[in-house]
Design goal:
By secondary structure, the chain is mainly alpha-helical. Helix content is 73%, strand content 0%. The protein has ten helices and no strands. The longest helix has 31 residues. The protein is elongated.
Length: 263
Protein backbone atom coordinates (compact mmCIF):
# COMPACT_ATOMS: atom_id res chain seq x y z
CA UNK A 1 0.00 0.00 0.00
CA UNK A 2 2.78 2.44 0.93
CA UNK A 3 4.56 1.72 -2.35
CA UNK A 4 1.40 2.43 -4.34
CA UNK A 5 0.83 5.70 -2.50
CA UNK A 6 4.40 6.86 -3.10
CA UNK A 7 4.21 5.81 -6.75
CA UNK A 8 0.98 7.75 -7.21
CA UNK A 9 2.48 10.76 -5.41
CA UNK A 10 5.50 10.59 -7.74
CA UNK A 11 3.20 10.67 -10.76
CA UNK A 12 1.21 13.60 -9.34
CA UNK A 13 4.36 15.62 -8.58
CA UNK A 14 5.80 15.03 -12.05
CA UNK A 15 2.52 16.02 -13.73
CA UNK A 16 2.26 19.17 -11.63
CA UNK A 17 5.77 20.45 -12.29
CA UNK A 18 5.45 19.74 -16.01
CA UNK A 19 2.61 22.27 -16.18
CA UNK A 20 4.82 25.34 -16.11
CA UNK A 21 2.03 27.90 -16.17
CA UNK A 22 0.32 26.23 -13.19
CA UNK A 23 3.61 26.09 -11.28
CA UNK A 24 4.39 29.76 -11.95
CA UNK A 25 0.89 30.90 -10.96
CA UNK A 26 0.81 28.74 -7.82
CA UNK A 27 4.13 30.03 -6.52
CA UNK A 28 3.89 33.60 -7.80
CA UNK A 29 0.43 34.58 -6.55
CA UNK A 30 1.18 34.76 -2.79
CA UNK A 31 4.55 36.39 -3.49
CA UNK A 32 2.95 39.05 -5.67
CA UNK A 33 0.24 39.68 -3.07
CA UNK A 34 2.89 39.97 -0.36
CA UNK A 35 4.85 42.51 -2.41
CA UNK A 36 1.74 44.54 -3.23
CA UNK A 37 0.44 44.57 0.33
CA UNK A 38 3.95 45.26 1.63
CA UNK A 39 4.04 48.49 -0.35
CA UNK A 40 0.61 49.54 0.99
CA UNK A 41 1.24 49.02 4.70
CA UNK A 42 3.97 50.78 6.63
CA UNK A 43 4.92 51.47 10.21
CA UNK A 44 5.86 49.71 13.43
CA UNK A 45 3.28 48.39 15.89
CA UNK A 46 3.22 50.10 19.31
CA UNK A 47 5.10 48.20 22.00
CA UNK A 48 6.93 46.05 19.46
CA UNK A 49 9.62 46.35 16.82
CA UNK A 50 7.54 44.34 14.33
CA UNK A 51 6.61 46.19 11.15
CA UNK A 52 3.32 45.75 9.36
CA UNK A 53 5.08 44.09 6.43
CA UNK A 54 6.75 41.55 8.72
CA UNK A 55 3.35 40.86 10.27
CA UNK A 56 2.03 39.99 6.80
CA UNK A 57 4.65 37.37 5.98
CA UNK A 58 3.47 34.48 8.24
CA UNK A 59 -0.13 35.19 7.25
CA UNK A 60 0.80 34.94 3.57
CA UNK A 61 2.48 31.60 4.26
CA UNK A 62 -0.88 30.37 5.58
CA UNK A 63 -2.64 31.85 2.55
CA UNK A 64 -0.22 30.08 0.22
CA UNK A 65 -0.77 26.75 1.96
CA UNK A 66 -4.55 27.14 1.80
CA UNK A 67 -4.46 28.20 -1.85
CA UNK A 68 -2.32 25.24 -2.90
CA UNK A 69 -4.13 22.63 -0.82
CA UNK A 70 -7.74 23.80 -1.04
CA UNK A 71 -8.06 25.74 -4.31
CA UNK A 72 -5.52 24.01 -6.54
CA UNK A 73 -6.38 20.55 -5.29
CA UNK A 74 -10.09 21.10 -5.79
CA UNK A 75 -9.58 22.42 -9.31
CA UNK A 76 -7.20 19.57 -10.14
CA UNK A 77 -9.64 16.89 -9.02
CA UNK A 78 -12.51 18.54 -10.89
CA UNK A 79 -10.33 18.43 -14.01
CA UNK A 80 -9.45 14.76 -13.41
CA UNK A 81 -13.14 14.01 -13.06
CA UNK A 82 -14.08 15.73 -16.31
CA UNK A 83 -11.24 14.46 -18.52
CA UNK A 84 -11.85 10.84 -17.51
CA UNK A 85 -8.78 10.36 -15.30
CA UNK A 86 -10.86 9.27 -12.32
CA UNK A 87 -12.84 6.83 -14.46
CA UNK A 88 -9.64 5.24 -15.76
CA UNK A 89 -8.10 5.02 -12.30
CA UNK A 90 -11.13 3.12 -11.01
CA UNK A 91 -10.40 0.43 -13.59
CA UNK A 92 -6.80 -0.21 -12.44
CA UNK A 93 -5.84 -2.43 -9.48
CA UNK A 94 -5.01 0.46 -7.17
CA UNK A 95 -6.73 1.32 -3.88
CA UNK A 96 -8.80 4.47 -4.24
CA UNK A 97 -7.15 5.86 -1.13
CA UNK A 98 -3.81 5.86 -3.00
CA UNK A 99 -5.20 8.51 -5.36
CA UNK A 100 -6.25 10.78 -2.47
CA UNK A 101 -3.03 10.31 -0.52
CA UNK A 102 -0.98 10.92 -3.66
CA UNK A 103 -2.78 14.24 -4.13
CA UNK A 104 -2.26 15.17 -0.48
CA UNK A 105 1.49 14.44 -0.70
CA UNK A 106 1.68 16.57 -3.86
CA UNK A 107 0.09 19.63 -2.27
CA UNK A 108 2.17 19.24 0.91
CA UNK A 109 5.38 19.21 -1.17
CA UNK A 110 4.21 22.20 -3.23
CA UNK A 111 3.05 24.08 -0.13
CA UNK A 112 6.38 23.54 1.61
CA UNK A 113 8.27 24.88 -1.42
CA UNK A 114 5.92 27.86 -1.50
CA UNK A 115 6.44 28.54 2.21
CA UNK A 116 10.22 28.58 1.67
CA UNK A 117 9.86 31.15 -1.12
CA UNK A 118 7.57 33.42 0.92
CA UNK A 119 9.81 33.25 3.99
CA UNK A 120 12.83 33.94 1.80
CA UNK A 121 11.14 37.04 0.44
CA UNK A 122 10.24 38.09 3.98
CA UNK A 123 13.85 37.78 5.12
CA UNK A 124 15.41 39.47 2.09
CA UNK A 125 12.88 42.24 1.48
CA UNK A 126 11.20 42.93 4.83
CA UNK A 127 13.88 42.07 7.40
CA UNK A 128 12.00 39.16 8.95
CA UNK A 129 14.14 37.23 11.44
CA UNK A 130 13.91 33.45 11.29
CA UNK A 131 13.65 31.82 14.72
CA UNK A 132 16.67 30.04 16.22
CA UNK A 133 14.72 28.04 18.82
CA UNK A 134 13.95 24.42 17.81
CA UNK A 135 10.61 24.66 19.62
CA UNK A 136 9.37 27.31 17.23
CA UNK A 137 10.25 25.17 14.21
CA UNK A 138 8.45 22.25 15.84
CA UNK A 139 5.39 24.49 16.11
CA UNK A 140 5.78 25.39 12.44
CA UNK A 141 5.90 21.69 11.55
CA UNK A 142 2.68 20.65 13.30
CA UNK A 143 0.76 23.76 12.25
CA UNK A 144 1.88 23.22 8.65
CA UNK A 145 1.05 19.50 8.55
CA UNK A 146 -2.32 19.77 10.31
CA UNK A 147 -3.33 22.85 8.33
CA UNK A 148 -2.25 21.45 4.97
CA UNK A 149 -3.95 18.10 5.59
CA UNK A 150 -7.20 19.69 6.77
CA UNK A 151 -7.38 22.09 3.83
CA UNK A 152 -6.49 19.27 1.41
CA UNK A 153 -9.36 17.08 2.61
CA UNK A 154 -11.70 20.06 2.35
CA UNK A 155 -10.46 20.72 -1.20
CA UNK A 156 -11.16 17.12 -2.16
CA UNK A 157 -14.66 17.32 -0.72
CA UNK A 158 -15.41 20.73 -2.26
CA UNK A 159 -14.28 19.59 -5.72
CA UNK A 160 -17.67 17.94 -6.16
CA UNK A 161 -19.46 21.31 -5.96
CA UNK A 162 -18.17 22.31 -9.40
CA UNK A 163 -20.30 21.20 -12.33
CA UNK A 164 -17.31 21.31 -14.68
CA UNK A 165 -13.58 21.93 -14.75
CA UNK A 166 -14.21 25.43 -16.13
CA UNK A 167 -16.35 26.43 -13.16
CA UNK A 168 -14.06 24.80 -10.59
CA UNK A 169 -11.73 27.80 -10.22
CA UNK A 170 -14.63 30.14 -9.43
CA UNK A 171 -16.25 27.66 -7.05
CA UNK A 172 -13.02 27.08 -5.11
CA UNK A 173 -11.73 30.66 -5.08
CA UNK A 174 -14.88 32.31 -3.70
CA UNK A 175 -14.80 30.70 -0.23
CA UNK A 176 -11.01 30.98 -0.16
CA UNK A 177 -11.02 34.75 -0.78
CA UNK A 178 -13.80 35.35 1.74
CA UNK A 179 -12.01 33.36 4.44
CA UNK A 180 -8.69 35.04 3.63
CA UNK A 181 -10.20 38.46 4.36
CA UNK A 182 -12.12 37.54 7.51
CA UNK A 183 -9.14 35.53 8.82
CA UNK A 184 -6.90 38.60 8.76
CA UNK A 185 -4.63 37.51 5.91
CA UNK A 186 -4.94 40.80 4.04
CA UNK A 187 -5.76 42.98 7.07
CA UNK A 188 -3.33 44.11 9.76
CA UNK A 189 -3.62 43.79 12.65
CA UNK A 190 -6.11 40.97 13.10
CA UNK A 191 -7.88 42.64 16.03
CA UNK A 192 -9.07 45.40 13.66
CA UNK A 193 -11.51 42.96 12.01
CA UNK A 194 -15.14 43.24 13.24
CA UNK A 195 -16.07 40.69 15.89
CA UNK A 196 -18.77 38.85 13.86
CA UNK A 197 -16.29 38.23 11.03
CA UNK A 198 -13.66 37.02 13.50
CA UNK A 199 -16.16 34.55 14.94
CA UNK A 200 -16.87 33.27 11.43
CA UNK A 201 -13.15 32.92 10.69
CA UNK A 202 -12.63 31.01 13.96
CA UNK A 203 -14.74 28.17 12.60
CA UNK A 204 -12.29 27.44 9.78
CA UNK A 205 -8.62 26.38 9.64
CA UNK A 206 -7.12 29.35 7.77
CA UNK A 207 -7.38 31.74 10.71
CA UNK A 208 -5.67 29.26 13.03
CA UNK A 209 -2.94 28.45 10.53
CA UNK A 210 -2.08 32.14 10.16
CA UNK A 211 -2.09 32.64 13.94
CA UNK A 212 0.10 29.58 14.43
CA UNK A 213 2.63 30.77 11.86
CA UNK A 214 2.71 34.23 13.42
CA UNK A 215 3.57 32.59 16.76
CA UNK A 216 6.60 31.02 15.08
CA UNK A 217 8.07 33.99 13.25
CA UNK A 218 6.98 36.98 15.36
CA UNK A 219 7.99 37.90 18.93
CA UNK A 220 5.52 37.75 21.80
CA UNK A 221 5.55 41.56 21.96
CA UNK A 222 3.13 41.55 19.00
CA UNK A 223 0.43 39.75 21.03
CA UNK A 224 -1.15 43.11 21.81
CA UNK A 225 -2.26 43.21 18.16
CA UNK A 226 -3.88 39.76 18.28
CA UNK A 227 -7.48 39.06 19.22
CA UNK A 228 -6.39 37.72 22.62
CA UNK A 229 -3.02 38.12 24.34
CA UNK A 230 -2.07 34.50 23.74
CA UNK A 231 -1.02 32.36 20.77
CA UNK A 232 -3.55 29.69 21.85
CA UNK A 233 -1.46 26.76 20.66
CA UNK A 234 -3.72 24.22 22.32
CA UNK A 235 -6.83 25.61 20.68
CA UNK A 236 -5.04 25.93 17.35
CA UNK A 237 -4.01 22.26 17.46
CA UNK A 238 -7.52 21.18 18.46
CA UNK A 239 -9.26 23.13 15.67
CA UNK A 240 -6.82 22.02 12.97
CA UNK A 241 -6.96 18.38 14.10
CA UNK A 242 -10.76 18.54 14.13
CA UNK A 243 -10.74 19.80 10.55
CA UNK A 244 -8.41 16.97 9.54
CA UNK A 245 -10.85 14.42 10.94
CA UNK A 246 -13.98 16.26 9.83
CA UNK A 247 -12.55 16.96 6.38
CA UNK A 248 -11.66 13.31 5.90
CA UNK A 249 -15.14 12.21 6.92
CA UNK A 250 -16.71 14.81 4.64
CA UNK A 251 -14.43 13.76 1.81
CA UNK A 252 -15.34 10.07 2.15
CA UNK A 253 -19.06 10.85 2.45
CA UNK A 254 -19.42 13.28 -0.47
CA UNK A 255 -16.70 12.48 -3.01
CA UNK A 256 -18.00 11.59 -6.48
CA UNK A 257 -15.97 9.68 -9.05
CA UNK A 258 -18.29 10.83 -11.82
CA UNK A 259 -19.29 14.34 -12.84
CA UNK A 260 -22.79 15.68 -12.27
CA UNK A 261 -23.47 15.59 -15.97
CA UNK A 262 -22.70 11.86 -16.22
CA UNK A 263 -25.41 9.33 -15.67
Amino acid sequence: MTGLVLARAHVEILCFFRERDAVVFTFAMPLVLLLLLGTMFDGVYPGSDVTSTQYLVPSMVAAGVASTTFVNLGVGIATDREDGTLKRLRAVPMPRSAYFLGKVILVIVASLAEAVLILGAGVLLFGLDLPAEPGRWLTFAWVFLLGAAGCAFLGIAASGLARSARSAAAVMNLPYIVLAFVSGIFVTPVRSIPEPLLQLASLFPLKWMAQGFRSVFLPDTILSQEVVASWEHGRTAAVLAAWCIGGLVLCLATFRWRGRRER
